[in-house]
Amino acid sequence: MKEQLRLNGAASLLSLALLLLGTWVRAQNNIPTGRRAITIADIIETTWVETHGEGSDTRPHPAWFSPDGKKFVVSLTKGNVKQNTNDTTLLLYNTADVLHSPKPDILTTMSSSSSREGINEVRWTDNNTLVFLGEEPGVMPQIYTLNVETKHLEKLTSESKRITMFDITPDGHEAVYKADLPLKNGMSDDQMRSGAVTITDQRLGALLKGIYAPLTFDAQLFAQQHNRRPRLIRPVNVPPTSGTLSLSPDGKHALVLVALYGHELKKSWTGYDFGAEADYLQGFFAPSSEKQLTPFLRWLLIDMRTGLARPLLDTPFYFYGRAPVVTWKSHGQRVFLAQAYLPLDVTDLEERKARIKNRYDVEVNVQDGQYRRASESELPAEKKPDLPVDVTLEQDVGTPPKLSVLDLKSNQRATLLDPNPQFSALQFGPAETIVWEVAEGCEVRGGLYLPPNHAPGKKYPLVIQTHGYRPEWFTMDGKGQFNSGYAARALAAKNLIVLQTYAFADDTDGEAKCKAAAAKKLGISGQEVQVWKRFEMFLYESAIKFLDKKRLIDPDKVGIMGFSRTVCYAGFALTHSKQHFAAALLVDGIDCGYFQYIAYGSNAEEEQINGGSPPFGDGLSEWMKEAPGFNLDKISTPVRLEAHGERDAGGVMSQWEWFQGLLRLGKPVEYILLPEAGHMIAQPRERMISQGGAVDWFCFWLKGEEDPNPAKAEQYKRWRELRKMQEENDTKDKARPPRNPRQ
User: Fold this and answer.
1) Is 568 helix (H, G, I), strand (E, B) or coil?
2) Of 684, 689, 487, 692, which Cα lies nearest the Cα of 80?
């Protein structure tokens, strides 16, 4: 009995010591007692205040003011894990009351079961009426109007296909909208009669899905008058970017920025100086790109009565620098365009030289197509009310956003809304911006997310998340609502350090400095895309060295994640870097490989990044050295692949070369397909799979940890088999002579 009492007493003392130690650690890290670790569900159910740009002012504005400025709405979106929806709520404030802690008026809440918000594209048509795209579970998004006084909600469209963008006249009677093109499985009548399909422009993914018609366009434009049936105007390819569809105030004309195929590019356009993008853009004029969509666009002017269309200017456009700006003048008779190329068909040589190098603000007469240069001062002044307050989002990398209001006369500031009061129950680790040198004369910034109980001097596993960094933003995932695999705060909660890369330290000419520094380090000039691919690899390597020197990380336990474009860069690092990565995650991206080049059609971008030539004849030798897919034998890292299907059966092909290659080489690989997910995942259930899978994967390989959730038992059974494979491969690799991984 006495022995038992002594044991119980010792256990009690140990428990008390651990309790006091935990209290001390929390105090040292400013973590209040009782807070819990952040989970993927917390990330999904974070409320985000939606923002928008206002004309040429691209700052993030969180408030939509009525034309008279007397009221404004705020749009809040959060994921609903239980319902598997994204819920958006519109709040109404009276401008005169906002400094006195007003309670907002809840106008409406709409929920989407897709990868989209419940409400988007919000705007006012008059001082009492809002118009927006709204969605309900299982129903395609439609155009709605909402009277903020009566809260009467009216649906203007009943479209069976997804509406992705729209514009509407000030009186609300005329609208134009873009809807997804319906994809019909099976053969056309002509194909059925002949019993054969002639393959021309069809995408392989569509053919595998049984869609045999050439997919020249991806959407249709419709005209919609109030209380009338919609009228098809024409099929189009429109980039999914705001500001690319605009209706004249009189409803007679529409402007749409359409994407161009290679065969639509004019030879004369090769005469333009595309500046820093020249190597990349000129590649799309090659014959091999004729059937490919290119980065080039063109403004089409559409007669809303006849549906006839013509180019507004016979010149290309591409997104570089400023977003597209179009403003109607003279009630729709003229239009102002910002940053447009002018045609090169002029006889004055000096004028032609100027047009080759420069883009201009121009005014175009929509009746006869005549144009003239214009100054920005001629841009019609936006009809903005003289607002007494400014509504902003106050946030930074370590501070969650709050809606703030500033009285412009008294300079009095007040917090209008804390969208996430539940954060008070969560443990947030330190987050900060760090700066390091990649090459001489080139510094970059990244976001460093540390564990809540971070202990100075302890070396933690590191996960590098790629695809950019915004130091002025607070984020739960690391990249401003990039939800496809990114999970910075949840990873940090598992005692991993996360580095989100990157932004240039020099905001003015950092990119030019870093390109020059990378080229100098490599001892080459030109080949800009190839230089950049290696710069990304240098960046990862230098970041690891920098953090190791700071005694923050264990350089033998580093994971890397690529998404979209950076799948190529992360893949190149995995196959060409001296740095060993202990785990990798590649999500729904461009891998710069041979199979994607063939399966999706030849692409000038892949040619540029792998030596500048197609992978045939002499060009093949460069591809063999450069393309990650031809160097999978060099990989000694377990790789998780993830693909998103969306509308195209070709989604699974995006990572197929890596999956089959690693599989045949006997290397550990996991492949996850989300058949209905968009490129940027938004649906809560899919986010749990993608972001939760990332946390599990990196914890397993970098820390040897498994989630005890019984629902994940099969997952860990697979991964333990992969670990055995990895251990066997490591044993074989140690027996081989050393190699130069960059050869």
Assistant:
1) helix
2) 684
Q: What is the pTM of this model?
A: 0.86
142: left (phi over 0), alpha (psi -120 to 50) or beta: beta
Q: Which CATH architecture has domain 427-735?
A: 3-Layer(aba) Sandwich (3.40)
**CB atoms near residue 310 (< 10 Å):** 11
The model's pLDDT over 76-104, given as tens digits with 9 standing for 90+, comes to 999 999 999 999 999 999 999 999 888 99
Which one-letter amino acid corresponds to residue 255?
L
**418/400 Cα distance (integer angstroms):** 9
Write down the pLDDT at residue 322.
57
What is the layout of strands, in order, in the sheet containing 360-365?
326-329, 334-340, 360-365, 371-373
3-state secondary structure 422-489: HHHHECCCCEEEEEEEEECCEEEEEEEECCCCCCCCCCEEEEEECCCCCCCCCCCCCCCCCCCCCCHH
Residues 6 or more apart from 475 whose CB is under 8 A from it? 397, 447, 481, 488
What count of other Cβ atoms lies within 10 Å of the Cβ of residue 387?
14
For 563, the token pair is 């998404």
Residues in the chain with pLDDT < 50?
A: 1-31, 741-743
Please check whether residue 536 is in contact with residue 628, taking contact to mean a CB–CB distance below 8 angstroms: no
Alpha carbons within 13 angstroms on the beta-carbon side of residue 689 total 18
Geometric angle at alpha carbon 136, from 132 and 139, rounded to 5°: 100
